Amino acid sequence: MIEVQNLTKKYGSHLAVDDISFSVKEGEILGFLGPNGAGKSTTMNILTGYLSGTSGQVRINGFDILENPNEAKASIGYLPELPPLYQDMTVKEYLDFVYDLKKCTLPRQQHLAEICKLIKIDNVYDRLIKNLSKGYRQRVGLAQALVGNPPVLILDEPTVGLDPSQIIEIRSLIKSLGKHHTVILSSHILSEVEAVCDRIIIINSGKLVANGTTAELAETYSKDHRIIIRVAGPEKEVKSVLATIANVEKITANGEKEPGVYEFIISPNAGADIRRDIFSRLADREWPILALKTNELSLEEIFVSLTQSDAAMSSKEGDDE
Amino acid sequence: MSAILKRELRAFFTSPIAYLVIAVLFVISGYYFYLANLEFGYTSMTYVFSALFTYACFLVLPILTMRLFSDEKRQKTDQILLTSPVSLTSIVLGKFFAAFLVYLIGISITLIQGMVIALVTTPEWLTIFANYLGLALYGGMVIAAGLLFSCLTESQLVAALITFAFELIITSITYLETVFADHPWVITVIEFLSVSARYNTFSAGTIHYDDILFFLSMQALLLFIAVRFLDRKRWN
What we know:
Largest sheet of chain B: none
Number of helices of chain B: 12
Shape of chain B: globular
Distance between the termini of chain B: 26 Å
Number of strands of chain A: 14
Radius of gyration of chain A: 25 Å
Order of helices and strands of chain B: HHHHHHHHHHHH
Strand content of chain A: 25-35%
Helix content of chain A: 25-40%
Number of strands of chain B: 0
Radius of gyration of chain B: 19 Å
Shape of chain A: elongated
Strand order of the largest sheet of chain A: 6-7-8-3-9-10
Structural class of chain B: mainly alpha
Structural class of chain A: alpha/beta
Number of domains of chain B: 1
Oligomer: heterodimer
Helix content of chain B: over 70%
Strand content of chain B: under 5%
Number of helices of chain A: 11
């Protein structure tokens, strides 16, 4: 649905986007992560045709954004970082204008009413946009992106300025939109991306540094695969039983944590999943496992490790901004 | 284009700008019409038109065009225009025609004044139409220029001032002819560009095709540059 190949954008000598390639399949929700100034908004502006890349190719719904701009743009609903709202219009006038601008063919009244109901802005329908609160403006911006029911939605920080209950509403809305639309969503809020998105892309100083599901990223970027378990059973015997499991590299007893419950830290050999073996061996001896957790990185930790090491590197190269 | 045109017209008429512009044109032409035609009994509307050309349009046109693109950029609303399935040309034309229409409404008061004269005697309709045409063509060119200048800056004031300077230059360039008296080719260029000389043929009641062509092609050129400029900006 969305294909980006070797996209590069230069501002003078500054590389804002550096040779990014990725694709988004139909019905997929892609999370776009990166620190401030990483090139998220620039990339989204290029995808939507607001800016042009210095080199590289962008295809939306099969249409090249430079060669068939009108067809490509007609497939996209775009919510920029700042919702592009005309302050002197009412919500109704504004959505009517967007409807005309996008040359929609859906039944006007019904289509706009549906969107307003979905986004919950029907109660401010006749109010001037300049008198709306930030949360409502954000919603009107989102409503605007949905006009014409485009197959691709590109949303730049859609939940900024909303209160917590609104954030939850909009998130579940985006998730439900993802069933029939292809969505790219950028955000600073990692838990949001984790909750809503099927796949995550992390970019840093214009480069793509990670691309995969949360689980894949955790798998790839966690250096530490230790397993921590708590077992109700005699410490020394449990340890000796655990030591018989294949692919166990090292076991450390961590002492008694609750009465009669001991904690162990097990380091498996690289790539081996020994959780099933641990369970069956201990079950044989009827020593219940009260807790088992892996020490894999959360998205937050992955994000920090990927973006900080690179930032340190690029600052050494004397890269500005 | 019609969506942009409609929105621009609405923006003109929900803000004071359209009313201000039309009021200035009405008041100035009305004042001269009252003095010259009603009070002193001239049947010619020369005074009205020359007042409109020298004072009114000078003041009004930069105000009419200053907002067109600068405000879109300041409010980031250009993002919705440039990411919608509409060509840059139709965006530029939509905005141009909206401003031009407001201007036409303003100067059309002269046609009503012509009808008032017709109540008493037969006015020189041909001269009135020639003047009206000249005013419309001149205004169209300045609006195209003002639209281009409003693409260059986020500040409405700066856009208005550049448009004002543009008007000053194109109407006073003809005075340079005396300076370059020994350089015939410079004089040819100045004569070609001299907007006031071309306008004067209209105000004398004569219509030359080459003058119409000059104003229309200047208009087209300025609008074309505006389109190219907006396109160019995406690449930088």
